[in-house]
Amino acid sequence: MKPLYQTRSCRLQQTGIPPFCQKSQRDCKYQGGFSLLELLVSAVIILVLVAGAYMRYMELAIDAERAAFKGVIGWLQAGMNMEMGHALTQGGMQNLEHLEHSNPMALVLKVMEPPSNYLGELDQQQALAAEPGFWYFDLHQKSLIYRVRYDQNLEGIDKLDNNKLSFVLKLVYSPADSYKGRRVIRRVRLQPSHKDFWKTPLGSGWKPRD
Predict the structure, then answer these.
(1) Could you tell me if residue 144 is left (phi over 0), alpha (psi between -120 and 50 degrees) or otherwise beta?
(2) Which of 26, 37, 188, 203 could share a disulfide with 198, CB 3.0–4.6 Å?
């Protein structure tokens, strides 16, 4: 007579039911893998997480461009202030006349390395190859150009040609516009070409004095 456990094992093998599914055939059915509904739910969750991560990445990238842009503007203003201080020690502000419509970045180059995203002085043909996120001085327009990478940083103004923001050096004269037959220079200003630049996220918090 065969032992009881051997007889039971033989019966399970004959019926095709594996030993680890001894409770019921229904248990074995659910151990075969994920259902279609479970796969769909998992896919939706993954898509939501990916979308959330991408949106967060975009927010950080937009903020980074804004911070980098304002940093360069700060360097340009520092360069202008140093140039004005130097002019005062060399005989007066009239020595700044040559700066109007010149390259503002040249003032930065006198004291420090240029920003890593500054391409230099470009002619019209070279300027066509400038990519978003870079600065350059347009020799034809006599203006400093920044190509904005993200449209979100231009909210508040009409669409610009290739997202180009341009700036020029302007001389500001005192109200009493004559002194010994000459106009009196009060300061140098970095002037944006777009009148509503201050409404954009890039222009918020920074506005030159009159």
Answers:
(1) beta
(2) 203
